[in-house]
């Protein structure tokens, strides 16, 4: 959950999000090295006396061609690795279908039984004490922790986007098309997200709440939910 004046990402709650945060730090260090080099060269140019001596053009051209290429490789390789990890879904333990509407979500647990429910934002006037305004819903998505969850995302009317930052998940919901993503919640907790595609007047009022629980608690919850 993000807080006021937070400058960094939310705490990672899935292996993919940990990889994304690591790549973010790696990219920032590369950018810092580039900025430091440029600052040094600017300072050197402004403070040193001008000289009429010429530099071997072939050498300098070779340097400023190979150096940026090496920088791009150091960014591209870990980026491609994470992209393949995010796209790969092997033998999921549970499949969840998320359907975007104006302006709420419908969830289907088709692996267990015909378990379907709608998830609406709780209005501020009805919000229980201690819950988050504009983020809490009447029916949370309950998933077992340490299990691979496949999420099939689509929409019923306009474009939506199913996004939970701390799980490293963001997938567009497109009418007439099924997109899929996956995540693995590495710890129990409640993770908040929102629709990340402008979808109309109440775009800001269709939050997503994912609750990760131990497997036994998830089985108890699913057995108590009406079909």
Automatic annotation (TrEMBL):
Keywords in alphabetical order: Copper, Electron transport, Magnesium, Membrane, Metal-binding, Mitochondrion, Mitochondrion inner membrane, Respiratory chain, Translocase, Transmembrane, Transmembrane helix, Transport
Cofactors: Cu cation
Recorded topology in the membrane: Multi-pass membrane protein
Domain Cytochrome oxidase subunit II transmembrane region profile: 1-90
InterPro entries linked: CcO_II (IPR045187), CcO_II-like_C (IPR002429), CcO_II_C (IPR034210), Copper_CuA (IPR001505), Cupredoxin (IPR008972), Cyt_c_oxidase_su2 (IPR014222), Cyt_c_oxidase_su2_TM_dom (IPR011759), Cyt_c_oxidase_su2_TM_sf (IPR036257)
Biological source species: Cardellina pusilla (Wilson's warbler)
One Pfam assignment: COX2_TM
TM helices/strands, residue ranges: 21-42, 62-84
Protein name, entry field: Cytochrome c oxidase subunit 2
Classification lineage: Eukaryota, Metazoa, Chordata, Craniata, Vertebrata
Keyword Zinc: no
Major site of localization recorded for this protein: mitochondrion
Function: Component of the cytochrome c oxidase, the last enzyme in the mitochondrial electron transport chain which drives oxidative phosphorylation. The respiratory chain contains 3 multisubunit complexes succinate dehydrogenase (complex II, CII), ubiquinol-cytochrome c oxidoreductase (cytochrome b-c1 complex, complex III, CIII) and cytochrome c oxidase (complex IV, CIV), that cooperate to transfer electrons derived from NADH and succinate to molecular oxygen, creating an electrochemical gradient over the inner membrane that drives transmembrane transport and the ATP synthase.
Record's GO cellular component terms: mitochondrial inner membrane
Localisation: Mitochondrion inner membrane
Domain Cytochrome oxidase subunit II copper A binding per the UniProt entry, residue ranges: 91-224
Molecular functions (GO terms): copper ion binding; cytochrome-c oxidase activity; oxidoreductase activity
Gene of this entry: COX2
Family statement drawn from the similarity comment of this UniProt entry: Belongs to the cytochrome c oxidase subunit 2 family.
Record field: catalytic activity: 4 Fe(II)-[cytochrome c] + O2 + 8 H(+)(in) = 4 Fe(III)-[cytochrome c] + 2 H2O + 4 H(+)(out)
Any coiled-coil regions, as ranges: none
Domain of life assignment: Eukaryota
Keyword field contains Magnesium: yes
Cofactor note: Binds a copper A center.
GO biological process: ATP synthesis coupled electron transport
């Amino acid at each position: 959950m993000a807080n006021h004046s937070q400058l960094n990402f939310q705490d990672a709650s899935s292996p993919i999000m940990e990889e994304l945060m690591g790549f973010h730090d790696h990219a920032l260090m590369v950018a810092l090295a580039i900025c430091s080099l440029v600052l040094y060269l600017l300072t050197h140019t402004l403070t040193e006396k001008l000289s009429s001596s010429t530099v071997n053009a072939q050498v300098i051209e070779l340097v400023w061609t190979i150096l940026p290429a090496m920088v791009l490789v150091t960014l591209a390789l870990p980026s491609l690795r994470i992209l393949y990890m995010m796209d790969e879904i092997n033998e999921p333990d549970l499949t969840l279908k998320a359907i975007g509407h104006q302006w709420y979500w419908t969830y289907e647990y088709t692996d267990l039984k015909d378990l379907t429910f709608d998830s609406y934002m709780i209005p501020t006037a009805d919000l229980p004490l201690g819950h988050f305004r504009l983020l809490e819903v009447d029916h949370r998505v309950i998933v077992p922790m340490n299990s691979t969850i496949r999420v099939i995302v689509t929409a019923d009317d306009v474009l939506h986007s199913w996004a939970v930052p701390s799980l490293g998940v963001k997938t567009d919901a497109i009418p007439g098309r099924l997109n899929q993503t996956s995540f693995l919640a590495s710890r129990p907790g409640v993770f908040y997200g929102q629709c990340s595609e402008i979808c109309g007047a109440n775009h800001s009022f269709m939050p997503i709440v994912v609750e990760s629980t131990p497997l036994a608690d998830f089985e108890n919850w699913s057995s108590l939910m009406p079909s």
